[in-house]
Amino acid sequence: MKDRNLIALGLSLGLVLVVASVPAPHAAGALPFPSVPHMVPAGGQASGTDAAAVAETLTYLRRLEKLGFAGVILVARGETPLLAEGFGLADREHGVSWTPGTVSDIGSITKQFTGAAILNFEEDGKLSVDDPITRYFQGVPADKAGITLHQLLTHSSGLSDPDIGDFEPVPLDDYVKQVFAQPLLFAPGKGYTYSNANFSLLGAILEKLSGQSYENVLRERLFLPNGMYETGYTLPAWGESRFAQGYEADGARWGTFLERPTAADGPHWALRANGGIHMTVYDMLRWARALLTGRVLTPASMKKLWAPHVSEGGDTFYGYGWSIAKAPDGTKIVTHNGGNGIYFADVAIVPDTGLVVFLMTNVIAENRSANSLLEQLGMRFLASRLLPAIPEVVDMSAAALAPFAGTYTLPGGAGSYSVTSDGKTLFIEAEGRKAFALLNSVREAEPGRLDKRSKLMEGIIAANMKGDFVPLSKAYGGEVAPERLKARWADLMAESEKVRGRFRRFEVLGTARMQDRDETVIRFFCERGSVDLTYVWDLEQEGRLLGRSARGLTVKMKLFPSGEGEFFTWDGGIRPPKMVHIESGVGGKAGLKLGEAKEAAIR
Asked: Which domain, by its residues, includes 90?
């Protein structure tokens, strides 16, 4: 559960977006929600504004579905769900659609349950968030002896994650030893680094104090009292057919949590208490309402849970398992996301308005639109902001698409576009730096700037390969020492070699102008395939690198038909689609033109 690609929402949220499951029988005080695809429940009336927003949202999501999005979205205002509908397939092998009955993984959103449980124990007098970890663990090294539970809860402990996979069967004592053997990233309380180990240690403390498994602690204290019968690791009686299946970036089946090695009482310690909880849509909404109405924690504990304790390095702060952000108008938003590169979930709550947003998907590896979906839909309902424009996909057979495949060359040999087919879908990729910039940029850049950055990056990577990291250090403004960069580079290369074999050569594919930055893509050719890395440039300071992009720039994009000879690019939702016109008869040959470009590439 290492995905923390947090979107700091620009929302004064008055809604809830949720990915759902069939509701269980509700306990006293729990919220009963009907299990229907989309609805305004009895006793609630959608305003005209909300009704229009629901209609537009459905149109938008159905277009995303044709582009590969799969998941469930629920929109609610207070206790009034406005929309609950699934899109795409939860299980491709059996043709099972996502519905408000699908169970899926919420990833690192699990952490906020751990935070709430710790505060619940504090209310019972079993612990204090100011306790040092030496009260709960033996053999703590001297440099870590002063770490407190508060610092674990806020990722300000200085601890880092040991090299242990999510499903690796490492016993608790060995896991703790490996965590404590890691060098501190900074003195406890003097920084912030997101680390799953912080919350796994907190989970171990809950088990030590209760004599129960982590899941049983949550189930007895948090879940069942609030009618959350379908939330947990293994205890809920979901039935395997209810699970969303996970899929790799190439579409290969990854499967589910149930197929991975686990202990008898839940996941092993690299995952336990920091990620991997599964739940349903309405259970998340029940949880949000329980928090907001004081059914989980006292007002004093809630203040701790959602306080902006530690800066995350930008405009957001970390609470106890929550990230704390502000909308443009100053409205407080508590949010978190999570995923493992296969599944993805995102949630946000606005305490002042009692509104929430939540979504889940099983296609984040293939379709990255979910990264920004929470914010897009939230702003549509809260501020009537228009949803991004996506053309309607026109159905075309593989036979009808095939004639458009080929290589289209720019005038003067300044690059080309390769249009290929996998038998179902067309893809487009640029060859040459000019073609790369034209295809991948979302805004026009001043002449020569993008090529200059490509050449500078080429020199930096060439120096890296010779063991000279001074040029890269200079590009970072001297803020990162060459020795540290060299160590990071060695780790990066080692990880790549495990999968693709030894490095052979590299090529700078080009630089593109994004909305608020420039991005350069380098392709590394290895014994078994290749890998692309994307570096981000500061727009304000010439020649200044900001770092590598976690999402990366997709350079081979899908090409969807929208009309006769009309197509648009799609990279999973990171960039807006770009119109592509392909026709015959340009100089007697087939031609390809990007948007409003003055010149066409000829086949």
From this structure: 16-383
